[in-house]
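Question thread 4412

I'm putting together a teaching handout and wanted feedback from people who do this every day. The idea is simple: show students a protein as raw sequence, then show them the structure tokens that encode its fold, then repeat with a second protein so they can compare. Below is the first pair exactly as I plan to print it.
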Amino acid sequence: MMSSFCLMLAAVLLAQISRACDSDNEEQLLTTQDPEVSYAQAYGYTPDTWNALDNQPASAGSPVDDYSNLYEGRTRNKQQHVVKTLQSAENGVQSEGRLALGGLGANLINAGFFNNRFTPANTWRPFATLANRIPVSFNPNFDNMFDMFETCVSPNGDAGICAPGSVCSLFGGRPTGSCSFGKVCCINTINKCGGVVTLNNTYWQNPSTPIDAPSSCSLTVRTDTKLAEQSKKPICQIRLDFISFTIAQPTAGNCVDTFKIGEATTVAPTICGDNSGQHMYLDVPSSAITPSNVQFMFTFAAETASRSWNIKIAMLPCGASYLAPVDCLQYFTAVNGKVRSFNWLDVTSTTTRQLNNQDYNICFRTELISGLKATQMCLSVCPVRNGDAFSITTPTTTPAAVAAAAVVAAQNTLTASLAIQAVAQAAFLAAGAGATAAQVQAVNDANIAVRNDQAALASAQATSVAANANAATLSGIGTSAIINAVNTATCLYDFLLIGGARDANDVGADRYCGNALNPALIPVAINTQICTPVRPFRITYHTDGTEAAVAAGTNVLPAPADTANTGFCLNYEEK
């Protein structure tokens, strides 16, 4: 046994020495990609396209200023660049000492060559400390078998992590494809309730068995640098990608099925409905300082509904250039694209799809356009086939308010007529056969009055419906407007905030609502493109907790009831 071990160890030493004598070309092949770049490419990002220190535009005649600021301060700035340079220099020193005596453990022993001969239940590890006692050099790119930020993409497009096959199996992963140094591209999937996630790029899918209702299904994401698989770098953010997401639709804007997030620094809204293709960024305390247990929970109501999901969970390291800015639930990192509210879908709907109690920021990284920093971001409604691309609160107008007041008046008149009719009929019935002609006439007059008042009410209601339908197509801006001599809320309770936005005619507004995106002072039913020069680019979406009418009160402005709001879908482009 001992002689076999010695032969094996000698073979390993000879292999290490022979690799040290290889050409520079082989040395370059053994160099792994920057984990941050690898991660960003796995996501389809163009990492740091506007970072002047790492990617200066080819057309620039002189160095471009560092674009980091208080808002985009999570991107690499000059100090971070210096640190990275120093780290690279240190790694170079380590690489040059490959024939010096170092630690074999991270290369073979700790990677499973010896220790994986023993089952996880067996705590006896005869070779656990051998690496620290054998002076053998190692390739620095092999120094962490749990390098969770060396991401990979499987042949079918799923994101995973590069890990030894034995480690992938230990965590229940699915090996698909290969990585460098004999590692596999490990795809980790959980399709149960009540699990705990500690690996980057994990997919949480709905259970294969039917979901009972009412019930709940939860998952915990644990961040802690004491975990071997997270020892590479501390975690500061979690990104959720809703690859697929379908649960019950809301009732009057209130979720009956719910998806909630707890124990994150970011206060995420409760969502439901259809959210495939959406994403969220969640801030968490640095896992090197404060471990976190972030909770994801579905709650299902008793009603029948189609429920399924596939959520990709990515753990983002502190200091990474691709972190979202603080307080940005969503973060877009392309020159152009599409942004939409949760549960917005291009479908015909007569019910409310807009979710209540939404309050979050949507942020956009400032990109380089032709070598120069973008100076504005323009927004326009998405083209739709069946749905409504912009429907945030139901606006009202003076004609609609007058018609609504006429309905109230007609209802009051009818109520009074019904009361008179009831009295006349009671007197007539009490008199019986001895009823007088006057009593008979009173009943007839009361019946005629009721019929007339019913017709008047129907007419007022029809007028109100038409006026409201016309008003519902119009744009809305600001917080309030004088409607029928009453100060009435406009974009006060539900709104999209786009600071400094203006149209092509230089007409501007900050708050937008209604059924058309337009800053016009007089509401119109025409959507138009608006652009904002305010950087960093950001919009804020807010809805209150009800779709019902808001009655006037002390420090409370009245507002009409909302009808079938859908939320928004906007195309954005930086220029």
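The second pair follows. I'd like the answer to focus on this one:
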Amino acid sequence: MDTGIFSDEEQILERQGENEGDFSWEPDSVLMWERLVKLIFFILERSLALNMVRASRQSLVNMVSVLVQWLGIASVWAAMAVGAEYMKYKDPSQPVGVRVEDLLMRMTLEEKIGQMVQIDRTVATADVMRDYYIGSLLSGGGSTPLPGATAADWVNMVNKFQKGSLSTRLGIPMIYGIDAVHGHNNVVNATIFPHNIGLGATMQVNLSDVYPFRFPTLIYQVYILMRMTVGSHHCTQKLFPDVMGLIVSQVCRDPRWGQCYESYSEDPKIVREMTEIILGLQGEIPSGSSKGVPYVGGKNKVVACAKHFVGDGGTTKGINEDNTLTDMHSLLSIHMPAYGDSIIKGVSTIMVSYSSWNGEKMHAHRNLITGFLKGTLKFKGFVISDWEGIDRITSPPHSNYTYSVQASVLAGIDMVMIPLKYTEFIDDLTYLVKSNFVPMDRIDDAVRRILLVKFISGLFENPLADLSLVNEVGNQVHRELAREAVRKSLVLLKNGKNAEDPLLPLSKKVPKILVAGSHADNLGYQCGGWTINWQGFSGNNYTSGTTIYGAIVSTVEKGTEVVYRENPDSVYVKSGDFSYGIVVVGEHPYTESAGDSLTLTMADPGPDVINNVCGAVKCVVIVISGRPIVIEPYISFIDALVAAWLPGSEGQGVTDVLFGDFDFTGNLSRTWFKTVDQLPMNVGDPHYDPLFPFGFGLTTKSVVER
């Protein structure tokens, strides 16, 4: 019986697993054609052999007919191959490098430039994401889907934009950035953790230059939970103003700077140790992995961003976005080390600082971005600008935008946080490339880095957020960990007017307590900037949490009367028959330049409240601030003094140590000055004469058996 050509074809396909060298149907568009041609010639050869054997029974016409049939089949297969082209970049089994290069070679200039663009959600639509091939979106401080948006609202918003990106020709997903500085702080009812200055104070430090860190596990856990909360909305990039916008690698050397609370310490050793949080955000790097290559370990991890590169904590008089005057040795020994550690730990993105180094804007500093960061430190992730950062290369900002685009991209910035006028950036960069002012290999390098992070983070396989984690936002586990972080961050600076008569821990069982001060019952003041809104808020109506006053009421014995007066006069205090007073004062919320201060005074009526209360009854003063502030003029009136920094939403962490349920264990990660005339003053300086030195912190013994 004549087996026929189709049975030969079936045998070939059945054998492909056994004889891959002969007839493997390689699913690559180029190799597919090569294998197809080989297959056609093989079939022709077999057909000719069959027909020669049967020459006595078949005519030449029949043989030709067979050949024509097979040519027709081959043409159908060719058409099918074109219609179902295999793309390596879509295959997760391919090495990441192969996927990156396969996708890059398919992209047009327009698509590449689109990947370098980050815009704010306020100017985005699904159509914009599709038509301009936008690589990234962000929510700046307070930029939310709608007022009072729930976690589900965030998920739905992100997915709407993402579907626009996925509808493009190549289906490249966008990456979403958010300033998760101390929790998912844009989201109503999310747990708000202490700001970084408080987390830095959880570290045990001594002045022998040996740093035995007591609570690295706590900080690691904090950032795991922050990652879980942010990951629930699939915000896969943290623009941690952060070393969690972010990862904040900045070292604040002058508390007059409005971003000082975003820094863990004045000491680079503490800041370096805190880069462990990268592993909490991105996941533990597997053993044997290459050092310095971005790593994100699964769809529930997030991309971390270290910021701000480099030296922004050392500007003159602490003026935000100003000039850091220092030599290379100081830059490398104080401000640079945490970036090296971040890169070793697999950080995926690094954000450039608004500031200048010795007069040269960081956003245009090719020697430091391309030469040192990418060259010497071998950073393989992508470099992102700050909000309108490239505009500020010129003075006034945006006065020569085409130049700013050219200077920043040539300096080595890969993704630009535009964030509003994106068509202007796209048009200018397109012109610069087509006119040979910006070489194509610089564009390819930028896009290659962006794609690398997107592939490594699993964004291509899991581009859409789901609702499975939205109920994790603000849950009790998160709040308990934040409460622990609060109590371990508090620093006891004074306890009693003499060592033999300590005031703390306070008794829970007394007849009557006075609670006073503008910060005692104000959740917004307690949380500080970067909370719900960019500059924070005042009051208790914008998110959930426990104020310090609320925590006091729930902690004391039922028979104890707690009276709250924001600003009592001395007559009222003296006549109130109070057992003791708790005064909570400090700074109002601020962020960045709005927080720059040459005086560092507490907000009114704080000084009057201290004088009126502490002049009449025994008192403990709790300072809510993002940095050390002027306190020396009042210190003699105060029985006990606590630096609570910006503790966040869980005020019960304050009462945990205030009433002796736990010990005070925090230590100053910043020097507390006597007067602002001493500034800048950091540990190790020759003129070092602080009110409370770096590393200082009194302890207490808890009254609870454990």
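Top answer:
Good format. For the second protein you could add a caption like this: The chain is about 35% helix and 10% strand. Residues 205 and 519 are 29 Å apart (CA to CA).
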